[in-house]
Amino acid sequence: MQMEPYYSHNDFVLLNGDSASICQQLSPNSVDCVFADPPYFLSSGNGKVRINNRIISFDKGNWDRARPSKEVHEFNTKWISACRQVLKPNGTIWVSGTYHNIFDVAICLQEQRFKILNIIVWQKSDPPTTISDQRFNFSAEYIIWARKEMKVEHFFNYELMKSMNGGVHMPDVWKIPAPSMWEKKCGKHPTQKPLRLLYRIILACTHEGDTILDPFTGSCTTGIAAQLLGRKFIGVDMSEEFLQLGIRRVEEISNTKVAEKFLSKMRENPEEVTVIVNHARKETRELMIEKGICYMRAGESDGSLQVTPGFEKMRYVLLHTGGDDAQLFHIKKGKEGSFSIWKKETLEQHGFHPEHAEYYIVIPFDNKPVEFTKPPRLKQRINTYRSKVRPLSDFTGLA
Ligand SMILES: C[S@@+](CC[C@H](N)C(=O)[O-])C[C@H]1O[C@@H](n2cnc3c(N)ncnc32)[C@H](O)[C@@H]1O
């Protein structure tokens, strides 16, 4: 890249200026994936929404001002063609929008010989209220996913997407909340995308070390997700103010604790099913499998169950002994996301020898093991014996 970067650190490069002119100057066939969140051209000065009982205009700024359709088409044609030449032949592009721009984007992509793969519906789990009794409430955005060449295969991480979706093929409707407070500590961008959305997109179509280009990078959500996932990033924006916000965000994740927190937040999928991970001694574990029930102490102690968010979506039990011999089972049909409390004596009547408490949480499961290739790290310095709720996507190679 010959241009002087606005900012560059650890494979995170920002360029300031008009995206079409800048992308034309990038090396041809050099990036694996483009994520573009261009102006939607929806700011007309009239739209209003209600958030927390306050009525606010949803004007985003001059860069998003509504334009005649011919101008929108020219704009989209230019930047899409500049991005096309930068994409590798097996690369893919994602473009987000609403009805204001997305149909034109689809036309431009097809005019430029891209092959449309999917139209993802990002269903906002917490949409603001549209102030209008003439329309339905707006609650979704659309993201077109297309590959550069009709006949060159692209990469799709089918297995990972499937495991992030409870073992079934990931659909094209994604329910993800809008960005939360933890994503906005460095300042606000009027159209900031949630990190969880970019997390899924990046994992779906790139490998570690790949390069991702965002031609309308704003507060650099794509770049933050890319850095956290070990991908290289090039971001372009004409606004220095937004690039400065992006720099503050990337500096924020240079703190390892913050980076870890963000990664674990991004992994949280409000829709994803969970696994209750439970340590038991070898003989107890074998008896649990024979009887199809597992138990853990109720109440505060080292081995007790922490009921954390995600518990209600619990669909699997994983049994292990100090990190070894892990086996995964489906929770009994009809009992998912619930548990019973048994007295110590009841467990004893079933042949167990609980020693540590009077009351136990009991979860029935189907004792035919579910195959997988790799469990998450189960041995920890502390808390190996504490039961935990883990997302199913932590388990690789699920059958
Ligand atoms: C929809 S926002 C992107 C928000 C971003 N995805 C985020 O999460 O923060 C679009 C961005 O494109 C920038 N922009 C608009 N027109 C542009 C152009 N012609 N060249 C470069 N940037 C542009 C705006 O400054 C704005 O930050």
Give a written overview of the molecule:
The protein is α/β, with parallel strands linked by helices and 399 residues long. It has two domains: 261 residues, Vaccinia Virus protein VP39 (Rossmann fold, 3-Layer(aba) Sandwich), CATH 3.40.50.150; 121 residues, ph1033 like fold. Helix content is 25%, strand content 29%. The strands form three sheets. A nine-stranded mixed beta sheet has the order 1-2-12-11-3-6-9-7-10, with helices on both faces. Strands 13, 14, 15, 16, 17, 18 and 19 form a seven-stranded mixed beta sheet that branches. It has a three-stranded antiparallel beta sheet with strand order 5-4-8, with no helix packed on it. Helix 5 crosses helix 6. The longest helix is centred in the first third of the chain and has 18 residues. The chain is elongated. The two termini are 44 Å apart. The site of S-adenosylmethionine has 18 residues, from strand 12. S-adenosylmethionine binds next to strand 12.
